[in-house]
Design a protein that fits this description.
CATH architecture: 3-Layer(aba) Sandwich
Structural class: alpha/beta
CATH topology: Alpha/beta knot
CATH superfamily: SPOUT methyltransferase, trefoil knot domain
Number of strands: 7
Distance between the termini: 32 Å
Order of helices and strands: EHEHEHEEEHEH
Mean pLDDT: 91
């Protein structure tokens, strides 16, 4: 029998993970980020740049999770992330660079809160944020394309992070 949210017994928990979305503006992606954040027990979802579109396109993919996920909008991504770093958070950017590490080989520090920075759909995480990141991780890919949708990539990263945090 297929289970649904009424008859599963998954243990609800919140992980010390903050996702910072640098200029993610696509409404369906934003809705999916709410849904993914809820599914993985993310502590907070932070959007940077301009106001996020909370209209029908976003709510269609969020499935009402914007009502239960803690979120905020901040204008200055760099300043916000710098403050979290100064407070002891580990800053992990999800981006393919010449010095990024493969997600499946990376060991997250389970003793410090994690800030996962994801980038704009077209340009990724900015250089100034990459430069202050404690680590830059990427997802190994085996096809011809060198990138994937920001929500798919975030989901894969959250799976690995929560797997490591759950086995501490």
């Amino acid at each position: 029998m297929q289970l649904n949210h009424y008859n599963t017994n998954f243990k609800q928990q919140t992980f010390p993970i903050t996702i910072v979305c640098q200029n993610v503006t696509n409404a369906p992606n934003i809705g999916s980020l709410f849904r993914t954040s809820d599914a993985f027990g993310v502590k907070e979802l932070v959007f940077t740049g301009t106001e996020i579109p909370l209209g029908r396109k976003m709510t269609k993919t969020s499935r009402a999770t914007e009502k239960v996920v803690n979120y905020q909008v901040v204008v200055d991504a760099f300043g916000f992330i710098s403050n979290l770093k100064n407070e002891g958070h580990q800053i992990i950017s999800l981006e393919i660079t010449d010095n990024s590490q493969a997600l499946h080989k990376f060991n997250f520090n389970i003793n410090a809160p994690i800030v996962l920075v994801i980038g704009d759909e077209n340009f990724g995480v900015s250089d100034n944020i990459l430069n202050i990141s404690d680590a830059i991780i990427h997802i190994d890919m085996f096809g011809q394309n060198s990138s994937m949708n920001v929500v798919q990539a975030t989901s894969i990263a959250l799976y690995e992070i929560t797997k490591q945090l759950n086995h501490k």
